[in-house]
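assembly run, all chains below
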Amino acid sequence: DQQVKQNSPSLSVQEGRISILNCDYTNSMFDYFLWYKKYPAEGPTFLISISSIKDKNEDGRFTVFLNKSAKHLSLHIVPSQPGDSAVYFCAASVASGGSNYKLTFGKGTLLTVNP
Amino acid sequence: SAVISQKPSRDICQRGTSLTIQCQVDSQVTMMFWYRQQPGQSLTLIATANQGSEATYESGFVIDKFPISRPNLTFSTLTVSNMSPEDSSIYLCSADRGLGYGYTFGSGTRLTVV
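ok done. output:
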């Protein structure tokens, strides 16, 4: 049972345009959500997170939106750059902010930003 | 330099043998986590390793198959025992380094069992 779903295995966008990566979850107990970026032959790198008490968090070109009623979150990258090309994982956990929380990951979306 | 060092980065092993993966963190951490990523799949948590106690395994993973050591607050090992081709995966360790930036991951170990 996939509790965190990324239904788009891949996404291709033009440099300078917006990239929107989507993620859905089924477990209503999740209260902390993270996005990771992964390049080939490297481990995932933390990108941005959001607590369930918020509906938006922004960090530079990256913004994460959370819609709790729809159990949906999205990552917006504006403007997209070729260096953003990577696999993006959505992850969720229970017990926001604690150092002992376990992460449940989606399968990832391969983003390709074309020059 | 990497903040979580994991080795080996890759290995090709014969079925029936065992491989031990090492993970070194650059600071003391309470919990370390071991994940597996099978081809085309998400990262799946194998177990949580707490220093000084037995690791806690997730459903579908057992200590006899994936023994874990956690001798101190900066180091852990995961052994993949009696390997079969189905164990071919990327294995990753991670830890919360307390920076408020989510978990940090090692670069992973790509295991191929032949």
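The two ends of chain A are 38 Å apart (CA to CA).

The CA atoms of residues 64 and 75 of chain A lie 5 Å apart.

not gonna interpret more than that til we talk
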